[in-house]
């Protein structure tokens, strides 16, 4: 089993160039299917989820050249509209392809998407939105067959601001006649990046980042040059990581406004945090303490994708704090692993209570999903002694060059192959 080995106790100091955002790169790569000609994407993070998406696009016949953070995608050579089950199961984001394939081919064959084991993660909102556009959906035992080559733009109100459903409907609406309004749409910055990419290709979408997105359909989309936005979740993860070890960090190439809820908590705890155009600097002063109640919520609230990492920090400085996970129903599994390291926390169905601050001690622990795994890495670096984090595969889904970046900050971490 591939694992990370960590020797805790070092104070992390240094800087990180923030990589491109996983949750922007994936929907943008899916959206290339609705374009003709070459797309030149920069800032593509070298993570396994992007590798999975590249495998899917290549299986559909797309031509892809990928070197470092630069990727060329040309879908003119596409021959397929059916994604194989194995590739579908590799990650949840494959479901975005449904909307993109409908725009390109007028049909899509997908199986239920895979994804981190952080909850049921149904796709009912995706499918209901597509049906309102006129998509006909039939089910076989394992597959969904989506058909719709004469979609009609309409008003679609989401019962909940689902990120994926918003993006999927945006992509399907590209081929619909007239305008589609997505009301109560998700406001995540990654959706703004998707809108910007599509508009650079000749699309006409407005309102991303607000509660209503308007898509003008049936516009010819031609591949473009686009730089993927920086990954606010990677940035927040390293911010918390450095401070959990009592250190300091400079994050370059990040818009601090995207991390406002986290920065607010860190400043209230007593950390020195300075921000400016394109950077965040933070430093531990040694006396940090906080008793806070944190609720995860859709953007611009506190992001669920930083909930496990923040909890790892609070086990050390957050006596009496509570962290409520309001978005995914199985995103607290990392808690039991933190308890193996001495964390004095109570785990309930949807919340973690930090009873007392304790020094963490190294242990053999197991990652069970992407962000929970990142929290365990943080805990291992902050702990005394040695920690083994098994299931490195989960963490590699969303963090590029993790061991290089941590080693560059002065942390001691190595990786075992299988
Ligand atoms: C996206 O997932 C992100 N993934 C997630 O990041 C992120 O945690 C999540 O948005 C929330 O911000 C990507 O962008 C690739 P949702 P998504 O649809 O689209 C329920 C990470 O760690 N729901 O906003 O799946 C769902 O079960 C990953 O980088 C339905 O009930 O999130 C969940 O409880 C994890 N029916 C809630 O809504 C639906 O049809 C939010 O899901 C769709 C969603």
Detailed description of the structure:
By secondary structure, this protein is an alpha+beta fold. It has helices at residues 22-31, 48-59, 85-90, 96-105, 124-132, 163-173, 189-200, 232-244, 260-269, 307-317, 334-340, 370-382, 392-396, 402-408; strands at 3-7, 13-17, 38-42, 63-67, 70-74, 107-111, 136-139, 143-147, 155-157, 179-183, 204-206, 212-216, 225-227, 248-252, 272-276, 279-283, 293-295, 322-324, 344-347, 351-356, 364-366, 386-390, 412-416. The strands form 6 sheets. Strands 21-22-1-23 form a 4-stranded mixed sheet. It has a 4-stranded mixed sheet with strand order 2-14-16-15, with helices on one face. Helix 1 packs parallel to helix 4 (96-105) and helix 10 (307-317) packs parallel to helix 12. The model has no long low-confidence stretch (mean pLDDT 95). The site of ligand EPZ has 28 residues, from helix 1, helix 5, helix 6 and helix 12.
Cα end-to-end separation:
5 Å
- The counted number of beta strands is 23
Which of globular, elongated, flat, extended, rod-shaped describes the shape? elongated
Secondary-structure-derived class: alpha+beta
Low-confidence stretches: none
Q: What Rg do the Cα atoms give? A: 21 Å
In spatial order, strands of the major sheet run 21-22-1-23
Bound ligands, named by name, code or SMILES: ligand EPZ
- Number of separate helices: 14
Major beta sheet, specifics? Answer: 4 strands, mixed
Q: Roughly what fraction of the amino acids lie in strands?
A: 15-25%
Percentage of helical residues? 25-40%
Mean pLDDT equals: 95
